[in-house]
Amino acid sequence: MKIEKILKSIWDEFIYGGHLQSLGAASIVFVSGILLKIQITWDILFITYLMVCPIYLYNRFKEINIDYFTNPERTRHLRSYVRFMPTIFYLIVFFLIISLIYFSNLWVLIFGLFLVTLGLLYTAFIKKSTKRIIFFKNIYVSISFVLLPFFLAAYYSYSVITVSILSLSLFIFIKAFLMQIFLDIKDIESDKKERLQTFPIAVGIKKTLIFLSVFNVIATITLPIFFSFYLNIFPKLILMLIFTLPFDFYCYKLAKKQKYLGYILQSGEFILWPLLILLGEIIL
């Protein structure tokens, strides 16, 4: 029983502590390296994880009481070590700075800390802007994901912004944007209490899922085909990302049944990307 309790605690921390999303960000960098034909090393994946982790930790810490209305299980887990969160936050940032200094240069250090600051500002200031501007927080969070290929290029001293980087960033933005809208469904009650104008609040859950289904199909199928066959800027491996659609629709189906698992799975979609790309290297 004690071992089961420990394992459950580890699992809850992975799911609710922001590690799922941090690995998702590292996964975007990994896939970007393959598609952009940049030879990456383990250190950038580790650094990307360290950049994103404190952002989610800070968000969880600041919104722990608000989250209770829609994420009670997550709140219960986080409250078990909430008093240590500030210390953990500063330790992660410390190791991030040390890692950036050791593995990169001054400009990459500045870029990395800029991305962290961008993420922290979301919780501190940006989210409140959604009271006035619908989609604002979705766009803001999505832009943070979009900057990851640029961070990858800067890390390995690729000073030229290519069509490939811009095109990949567009695809990442759309997928991240749709993901954020979907995740807003689970936060309807808490967002209403904060008077935020999110898409699910404005049009309802049913219409939101229809919107997501239609635009997800259009973007996920047409963009990889267009990039690969028409522009010829990516290897055929990018076509494997089309197979994220069954995963997305499964998450939507769970949401219709009011199962929280759908939101957990969707928040970790980017982890699926490397698996599909690596599978593509075997079969294509």
Keywords:
284 residues; mainly alpha; Farnesyl Diphosphate Synthase; 0% strand
Characterization of this structure:
- With 284 residues, the chain is mostly helical.
- It is built from 14 helices and no strands.
- The protein has one domain: Orthogonal Bundle (Farnesyl Diphosphate Synthase), CATH 1.10.600.
- α2 runs antiparallel to α3.
- The model has no long low-confidence stretch (mean pLDDT 91).
Short account of what is shown:
This protein has 284 residues and is mainly α.
Number of domains: 1
Task: Indicate the CATH topology.
Answer: Farnesyl Diphosphate Synthase
Rg, nearest Å: 19 Å
The number of distinct β-strands equals: 0
What proportion of the residues form beta strands (DSSP E)?
under 5%
Look at the helices and sheets and give the structural class. Answer: mainly alpha
Helix content estimate: over 70%
Q: What is the straight-line distance between the termini?
A: 46 Å
